[in-house]
Amino acid sequence: EMSFPVFLLLIFLLKSNLSKSEADSRSIIISALENATVFLENKQRDINLDGVFGFHILQVHLKGALEKWPSERELLSQQAQVKRLVKKLSSLTEKAALSFGHSDPEYFKEFQPTLELHFWILPHLWNQTDSSFAYSAFDNINCFTEEMSDKCFAYLLGTWKYNGSSCIVTKACRKIMTMSGCSDYCLSHQLFYFLFADAKGCSDRLFQRSQYYKNIFCASMMKINLMIESNGFQFPSRDLFMENIMLCGMAGFSDFYKPSWLETILTWQKPEEGCFGKSSEIFEHPPRVKNQERLLRRVKRREKVFADGCSSHTTGVAVGVLGGFLYYY
Fold first, then answer.
1. Residue 208 covered by a domain
2. Quick one: pLDDT band at residue 71, thresholds 50, 70, 90?
3. Which residue, among 239, 204, 203, has the nearest Cα to 224 in the 3D structure?
4. For every residue of 16-55, which 3-state class applies, written as one string?
5. Please, are residues 154 and 167 in contact by the beta-carbon 8 Å criterion?
């Protein structure tokens, strides 16, 4: 028979080991983020809106993490690191946003509200996806164009015209944003639509069923991520894989924050540049991947890939994801 104090000691050791591994994970994430911030510093004049948006989402997560951070002595140095990072990021994202606002004022105006710090609400309660909600088949590859989804976002955000009303749900938007069987970036844009509506506090009857749609979208996005994982994380699908984690994490699904996924994503960061994008081998010898075209047929209209293989969109999504992991831990 195990004596009671020994049993308590074992529980204590197990718990301290768990919190030690969480503290280690936090340290690794923080240094990856510091590294990515150097990339932002170097490219702040050239980064596109997707990149600025991702670094902004990172800031939101870091502020959220600081608010719920326990005040244990051994965590103080990590806390101080994160505070420094937030300070640095807020001036860098502001400069990057200004510079993007000059180069593409129309597009910038359309999404400006999403770059305000108080726009986003982070989850305080967590759900798990239920695989029975996932689509049995993804039969709508191209549900809608990016122009169509941008228009629907602008109606929700109130940026469709100067001083426009917000939370407008048109018949067309209701149809495409709830269409079933969508996949890839159409699916993540559908979830975005509901996250924007939450953030704006829209009360259209469509959003009274918000959780129902989120359950379906994120169960389907989990199914896609598990397929990407079983295919060995082929390069063209990594961006989508991370976007699914970022958005479903923000929708409150904690099973996207898998430690093994965190480890994998950290290996994709380019150590010299601090960014995410094509690794040098891929950059020099592009692989022949089946479906590569389809996976790359994304929101490429304003994508920016730098000469060193760094991608604005992928780096933005990656830091948004890492911020989510830190907030969840």
1. yes
2. confident
3. 239
4. HHHHHHHHHHHHHHHHHHHHHHHHHHHHCCCCCHHHHHHH
5. no
**Could you tell me if residue 8 is inside a domain?**
no
List, in sequence order, the alpha helices (H) in 74-183: 76-103, 105-111, 146-157, 171-177
Element (H, E) at 187: helix 184-200
Structure tokens at 287: 């692989």
Residue 79 vs residue 281, higher pLDDT: 79
Q: Are 182 and 190 in contact (CB under 8 A)?
A: yes
**Contacting residues for 222 by C-beta, under 8 A, at least 6 apart:** 129, 131, 134, 244, 248, 253, 255, 256
Between helix 235-250 and helix 210-230 the angle, nearest 10°, is: 150
Q: What is the mean pLDDT of residues 246-272?
A: 97
* C-alpha span between 256 and 261 (Å, rounded): 8
Place of tokens 């490219």: 43
Q: At what angle do helices 312-328 and 259-266 cross, to 10 degrees?
A: 140
Residue 180 lies in a domain: yes
Q: Which residue has the tokens 């870091």?
A: 62
Q: Is residue 14 part of a domain?
A: no
Q: What is the pLDDT of residue 74?
A: 72
pLDDT cut 70: percent of the chain above it: 86
The residue written with tokens 């790359």 in the block is 296
DSSP 160: S
Range of the domain at 27: 21-328
Task: List Cβ neighbours of 180 (8 Å cut-off, separation of 6 or more).
Answer: 135, 140, 216
Give how many domains the chain has, as a whole number: 1
In angstroms, the CA 289 to CA 273 distance is 26
Q: How far apart are CA 82 and CA 73, in angstroms?
A: 15
Q: How far apart are CA 18 and CA 241, in angstroms?
A: 27
